[in-house]
Amino acid sequence: MPRLVMQPGMPGKSSVMMVAGLAMMATTAMVGGATAQDVPPEFVINQSGWEGGARARSEAGEFSHCDVRRIFDGQRMLIVSLNRRNEINIGLVDPNFEFTPQTGTSAVVMQIDSDISARIPAAPGGDTILVLAAGQSDELIEALRRGNVMALQTEYGNFQFPLTGTFNAFAALRDCIRVANEILPPEPTLEELAANGPPGIGRAAMATLLQAAGIEGALIVPEDQLPDDEMELSQVWLIGDVVGGLHQSRRETATIEIDTFVEDYLEILGERCIGTFDAAPAETEIIDDRYAFTPVDMTCSGEGGTSAVAAIFVLDDNFYSVFFHEGDEELADQVSESTEALTALVRQLAVDSLEESSDSEGESETSGETGAEPDAATESEAEPEEEPAAEAEPADNAQTDATDAEPSAEPEAETSEPSGDESTDQDSEPASDTTN
């Protein structure tokens, strides 16, 4: 299927992270200059045929996550990672995969014995890796620890993996994250990110916006799995088989130049489409010569079918932004409805901001200078002071803490007490491919 969006984790930032990781030499920087002897033993995992440990986000050694991995059948690799927000990613590496930047998201059905059956969003994490974003789920970790066999039904084949040695290996994975949370500085709050971090909408704020817009089940992609390409996306989220994204550029002047922003970004998207690209910008709405909104519907059509994209280009006080959703043609209604919901929310926030500014200016003019006697005519004609307009509040379940604001994407599962092989000393077992 032709796609404009390079899926989360395609070659760039995360393929190195998920497939190879960084050497433990970077761990010294993670723990603030400790010597190699001071590196916690929990940061190195070698348990029952599974290997892994702490991983860094860059050569500077910034901690990213802990993972364990095992090779099956001499070629396939299974990687299970856990970050400080207890989000689970499962990477399936197969040399027969041939993913491209246009490969779309998909859903994988996971079955662990008879205990868990879950439908999990997945996206390529490189040319030969499929990443399942399982979200936060203690039940899943326990099922993987205690289960016998995990079966994965994917668009690219069906696979079975014996869960040999997972009882101790996955306990070590939890210990790795526990120690990381104990010895590393707390993750920054939303306020700290706003003051010191990269400008624009962060993960916490994006999660709040999606929830307040009524977009349920969105799974926000971790920063280290964002596509690294010319689209320069600062946020990506998955809603089933629909991909959402956000790009922001700082507003440099007071003039409204949204037409140029739209034209330049559409050119980038058009060059990414392998096939025929069509874009239909609607009329730009300008509010109070301050904010601007331009909706654009797009399609990318090729041999594999048609991808539908709905975007809203926005100008606020500080940024030019584009929010969009993309999915296969049969998901065009969901794509449009998701973008329309965000558009309505962002527009209302702009209107509320203008009303609040107007009320503040009115109060300032009415109060006059401190200590000055009011003019009699002005005093008699003064309008009654209005109450400030109430700020729009997000939905009741909107989260604002930067460390856990992302909506969790727990597998839809019926879980019973898992039972199974707790063997911890067997060699690597072959994975069976049931595609044939």
Strand-helix topology:
Layout: H1 13-20, H2 27-30, E1 44-47, E2 50-56, E3 63-72, E4 76-82, E5 88-93, E6 106-112, E7 116-126, E8 129-135, H3 138-146, E9 149-154, E10 157-162, H4 166-183, H5 190-196, H6 203-212, E11 219-220, E12 235-239, E13 242-250, H7 258-272, E14 276-281, E15 285-287, E16 291-302, E17 305-315, E18 319-328, H8 332-367, H9 376-381, E19 432-433
Antiparallel strand pairs: 1-2, 2-3, 3-4, 4-5, 5-8, 6-7, 6-9, 7-8, 9-10, 10-19, 11-12, 12-13, 13-18, 14-16, 15-16, 16-17, 17-18
Helix pairs in contact: 3-4
Describe the structure.
- There is one protein chain.
- The chain is 26% helix and 30% strand.
- The chain has 436 residues and is α+β, with helices and mostly antiparallel strands.
- Strand 7 (116-126) and strand 8 form a beta hairpin.
- Helix 3 packs antiparallel against helix 4.
- The longest helix is centred in the last third of the chain and has 36 residues, at 332-367.
- The protein is globular and about 65 Å long.
The strands making up the biggest β-sheet line up spatially as 1-2-3-4-5-8-7-6-9-10-19
Cα radius of gyration in angstroms: 25 Å
Q: What's the rounded overall pLDDT mean?
A: 76
Strand content: 25-35%
Count of distinct strands: 19
Gap between N and C termini, in Å? 24 Å
Q: What ranges have pLDDT less than 50 throughout 5 or more consecutive residues?
A: 6-36, 369-430
Largest sheet: 11 strands, antiparallel
